[in-house]
Amino acid sequence: MTSPTTSTDRRRFLAATGAVAGLAAATSLGVSPASASSAVRREDDPFTLGIASGDPAPDGFVLWTRLAPDPFTADGGMGSAAVRVEWRVCEDEAMRREVARGRELATPELAHSVHVEVHGLRPDREYFYQFRYQRGTSPVGRTRTLPAPWACPPEMRFAFVSCQDHASGYYPSFADIAAQDLDVVVHLGDYVYEGDVDARGGYRDAPVPEPARAAPRTLEQWRYRYALYKSDPQLRAAHARHPFVVTWDDHEVVNDYAGTAAAGQPDLSDLRAAAYQAYYEHQPLRRRSIPTPRGGLRLHRGFEYGTLAAFNVLDGRQYRDVPAGSWGEGPEVVDPGATMLGHRQERWLDRRLRTSRSRWNVLGNNVMVSRLDHDGPTGDVVWHDAWDGYPAARERLTRSILDARVRNPVFITGDWHSTFVNDVHTDFDRPDSPVFATEFVGTSISSNGDREVYGPYYGPMIGYNPHIRFFDGDRRGYVRCTLTAREWRTELRMTPTVSTPDAPTETWRTFVVEDGVPGAQEV
Question: What is the pTM of this model?
Fold first, then answer.
């Protein structure tokens, strides 16, 4: 089924996107378009969707906000004029020791979102920031720069999260994340979900504004959907406390899509272009990720935490081929040319792996790398939306890691609403083949709510997969990781319920990977 967006609407959308790219470039050079104005004065709070930072570097980071005093109207309550937003960065939370300031243009073409790229700061430091528009000031946010590339930091602390279906429950895990001392949060996808939301917000049983209820198909509807999610105070608190590094999975567009197609939907180009633009508008991403006139968005990127860890943030949706097998469960099919990442991203990743000198090499990944045999030795049924649907691409990735002699490769993965701790073998058809990497698959923040779904479904399969060292199918939460020169420590932070926003979150299990010894051990 094709998107209801017409060809004419698509041409207008792409033309606007191209204009946005040019506008952003001009803004970065300090050139203010003639459309910039002071706009109409408002008593409303323009920062209803919060603030965020992301994509940290040794000398800076991205600061984000979106002006939206009325986020569930077509223009967010901002009208059609471009406006100037002031920002400040200070060394103290009281915002007295200022180290950087400036003004950024917020344009209607990008829903009056702001993406400030701050440079010239000191490495490995805590900073605080704030926005101002007219008489309104945002809350004060906290963020951090990365250590210098040559530094040998003794420790890194980060969390990774995924799958936060608003209608499935509240976000107590984000409240816990906001209270943690972390260097960065990695979001591995399913930031929003694309289905209808009922008037009472599903499991939350709280009213949802009418514009945000319909399954998004247009750019305006995707903006409403992000506004609904950003209205959650616990998500806003986590963003205001830590820098986020984000990538997507499927529900930011449609379930289990590949490239520009999904089951029964051979051309998602229009829907995807609108979804990608809304994604950029609501995330702390750099200008290099501004959607292109063709509707694409560069998301794969890397960063280094001194010499302790290198992070490779992957995009496993935009460039993948349609699976050679079925769209869901079915017998394994090997297509030698099929790709999960796209051949250009594969080459980019190979170059990063070959040049890495980091002790830990992290691959931020949207779907499970390790094999999940569904029917045991008598069959070959797998789930084709995961790397199991692209076995030749997985073999290329394995070979790239082995040929580069990558030190301590660790996959962090989202998507499954379940927790897996996996030994990654060079050949999953041979259980005695060497283990060369470790994979931690984190459960969902809220998706599936408090229901028992995947425990009964995946549980009987675990015995067919001896490389799976640990599995839990039905707890909600996130994963906290602490890295040192000697070990990687993973703590599964779980909450007993997402039916209330103030549920406690506690460490349920802990696993350790020793330097130079692939595979995790429970401690």
Answer: 0.92
